[in-house]
Hints:
single chain; TATA-Binding Protein; Endonuclease III, domain 1; 47% helix
Amino acid sequence: MTGLVPAPDFDLGLTLGSGQVFHWTQVGREWHGVIGATAVRVEQRGDELRVTPGTEALVARYFALDHPLAAIRAGFPADAYSQAALASCGGLRIMRQPRWECVATFLTSAMKQVAHIRAISLELRRKFGEPVAGSRVRAYPAAERLAEVSERRLRACGLGFRAPHLRAAAGMVASGEIDLEALAGLGTAELRTELCRLPGVGRKIANCALLFAYERLEAVPVDVWIARVLRGMRGEASLAELEAYSAERFGPYAGYVQQYLFHHARVSKSLPGE
DNA sequence: ACCCAGGGGCAAG
DNA sequence: CTTGCCCATGGG
């Protein structure tokens, strides 16, 4: 018995491998992971997903299969590099992630390579996450749990200087000082300001959360890769100027453009103007 | 050995 | 309001 989910304009492997989430594992043709506290197995067959029975609606929402991808792609910038990114990223979607999991994961991503962010995520899950029936990987540890873990034990997961940040941020969320769910009602600028109150969360990581967990598809996280790409388009500029440039030039789905550029730059190992 | 990684915080200009 | 420097750790 297998659940079926229609999934036009979607590439499961590409989406899971584009640096948005870090805990999914490919097993043959299947991808195994958890969405929140639910075990999910997904296999793509053309324009259809075969999923764990009962998770159809959850999967469709998580992978944002309702995003108007044709319209989003039609609005991409006309320059050669953006068009090359567009052509190489067919079916890549911006997912809807659980809020705390997204904020915490990107908090631990500062100055880390994608492979190591994954290792940290899996280690935190293994040591502090709740078991999920039917899944080898555990749920991302709740803020309440991480807030009570010693800095020493967090550092043992390879967190380095991020350990006290994660612990303190978890404490603020666990105490209710910051309500990540209630924040969803705020406008984007106010929401970003609130997220930046969390230790270890600055402009870039807040923008990751806005884009990947709050459906603010206009948000553009400017990391070292995107900075290189944008400088190739615009010339030398500060990070703030680069973000403003992308907002102005990429439009209401700037976050999508950013994600395609990020993935294309990493895979093609090329930059605009080369 | 050496360089870099999906940055943030803080002090100094 | 900007820039410079340090913060740990692992992979290429």
